[in-house]
Prior knowledge:
This protein is mostly helical. It has helices spanning 2-17, 27-40, 46-49, 58-64, 69-83, 119-123, 125-133, 135-158, 170-179, 181-187, 196-204, 206-219, 221-234, 247-254, 259-267, 277-289, 293-304, 309-320, 341-368, 372-385, 394-401, 406-417, 419-429, 454-459, and strands at residues 95-100, 112-115, 238-240, 436-437, 440-441. A hairpin with a 2-residue loop joins strand 4 (436-437) and strand 5.
Amino acid sequence: MLTRADAERFGRWLVADGWSWSPEADVWVNHYGTGAYIEATRALPFEQITQRLAPWRILEAARLRGSDQMEVRLAAEIFSHVLMVVKIEEPDPGSTLSVDRTEAESPPFSFSVSPRISQEDADNPMAALSKAMDVDAQAEAYRRAAEIAISRIREVHASGASLYLASIDVVDFEQVLEHAPDMVDRWIEGYQEISTNFRRRVRLAEGAFLTLCEALLASDPIRGTQLWRAVRASMVTRYIGVAGIEELLHMVFRVQDSPEVIALRDELVTLEYCNTDKDLFNLAVAASYNGKADWLASIIETDRASPHAWKRKRSVVLAGFIANNTLPVVDAWPEGEIRTGYAALECKSARFRWAEACAHHWWRVYLNAHDPAAAYAAWVLFLRSADQRAWIWINQDVKAENDNSPFMQLKLSHARLNRSARKRAMEKRVGKLDDNFIGRKILAGVGPWGKEIATEFVNS
Length: 460
């Protein structure tokens, strides 16, 4: 609160008190204390304050001071000392961690925990299903997983891995690539063969490597695409961006076009990356959200002209996942009997377009409503039809309204307060896509879900 209220004033108090970050201190104290310290010491020589700043904010400090070449290089050297430490083992939080990057004001080092599936449950699906139906047991499993993860993460931070779960901005690495590129060469050493040391460095600083990868995709696409594959193969924490889609996927469509990046986007459509309808949905949403709808349309047209039946079906499925549809969607309610599986798939695809068009319609009705009853009715209908594609146009429509009336602010507050309900409703609409591929039920071990026969599937 003190840092956000008046960082410079609070920082002056910290300077006078001789404050410094400490590996043993609470991460919030280190994070926000460093933020205030940076604001209060811009007039001081950089070398006098670097040892007092938390390592995950040292590059940010150099940027906020003007990205002076010498200061950036000094910050990169300090950052390198922390990143390249060799005495720390790979962390094991005991569960699957997820970091939500959609909230700009989210607390530092925040994460979600999901218990891992035990080998016993993997070998006995019926027992696993029974456990999943036991609400109390599930709650206890999550509580224990959270306690174990928090304890182990604190141990990792105390051991010197201060970059673990830290978030660093892309622009902080852009200045390093400009003024100290040789440092980056050291940080990514071993990425081509994914050496043991490289993998360990990534897992001790996944957030840093994630944004470094994005910066390199933009400035050096050849190395950037290679690093992207290596980071993807090494990371164990899921970093979630807009629409519940992983940041590794978002960044490929977010960075500027280049032959290497375009080739990587095309690679993402292959069976290695997309072998469920949910994968295809995420790919389509990531492309549309980041302004690459033309690329998606091109992929659909290429598949539609393919001699392979499964690719033609994939084009139909992808066509259902495009965004910014408008009513009416005639194909969603065809006349007569649906006689073939292909016709049924086309109808299902049209229904997905229709649902998104309905959601967009009711969102606009909600924004334009002039009384609470009409607004709430539109909100309910919006929730019944929306999926993650809504994130593509929700904020755009709000800005287009240009309405600062008290009732509009009330509606926007209602939408913000019900963010969790909105997220659950969106996820529910696409919840079963994970179980299918091009409209067919997935069978575990059968290509492309069994790598040994994936080639046979592609050639069939």
